[in-house]
Amino acid sequence: KQWYQRRVLDSLEILNNKEFKSLSLTSEKWLEIQEVSRDLESVTAYLKHAKEVEGYTIVGIEQATNSVPLQRFKFPTRSILVLGREKDGVPAPVLDLFDVCVEVPQTGVIRSLNVHVTGSIAVWEYTRQVLESVG
Fold this sequence. Notes:
Order of helices and strands: EHEHEEEHEH
Low-confidence stretches: none
Strand order of the largest sheet: 4-6-3-5
Distance between the termini: 11 Å
Helix content: 25-40%
């Protein structure tokens, strides 16, 4: 089973940022990184191409009525994780492209995590499944 990893950023200029370089510890040299502008047209075009041409499954990390709890979700080999923006969430045209919505289950009155925390948890679960599959 081959696992693919690609990072998508809205600008590759960050790769030249001094603080980014000190935190990344040269990981940008070993990862495939692609630039996709943050505007809605570019994001939807990228996701449509990845889905229809490259065979990726679009996995939205979003609380919705039909969301699957993260601990019950088996990531397809070729998955793209899509997270919304703080407070605004995911725009409707992007939601329409999701093959599945996955959420991080929570308890309590306020059922919300910051996007970077939710993203980290989802990436860890994806990584855990990759590591488990390769033994």
